[in-house]
């Protein structure tokens, strides 16, 4: 049960990281678009007010990009922690499964030996009580 919960948490962490990486790519694309727009405007006349607006938009896009990078880094750290806990839970479950199989095998071996001893006792008792003719 713990393994499935850990696997589910790991899958959620992966999904969160992927979503954050998609948002990071969107932020990078937006910044690239702004830079291209600024470059296009520079080929024509570019007033100071327009330049200030573009500069403000570029600064905002850079801040947004930085925040998103931090979110991606946090998501990667969370994913790594959850992966570690999943690997541990998976190892624990495999160890328990192996232990259960070994104990079951030991139990079958013990029961087989017990049946062999009982059979030998029955055979030995049969010859002990067999009347001689």
Structure description:
This protein has a single domain, classed as Helix Hairpins. Helix content is 93%, strand content 0%. The chain has 2 helices and no strands. Helix 1 runs antiparallel to helix 2. The longest helix has 82 residues. The chain is rod-shaped and about 130 Å long. It starts with a helix and ends with a helix. The mean pLDDT is 89.
Uncertain runs are none
CATH topology: Helix Hairpins
Estimate percent helicity: over 70%
Query: Number of folding domains?
Result: 1
Q: Based on CA inertia axes, which overall geometry fits? A: rod-shaped
Rg, Cα atoms, Å: 36 Å
Main sheet?
Answer: none
Topology record:
Elements: H1 2-43, H2 48-129
Helix pairs in contact: 1-2
Descriptive key words:
single chain; 133 residues; mainly alpha; 2 helices; 93% helix
Short description:
By secondary structure, the chain is an all-alpha fold. Helices cover 93% and strands 0% of the residues.
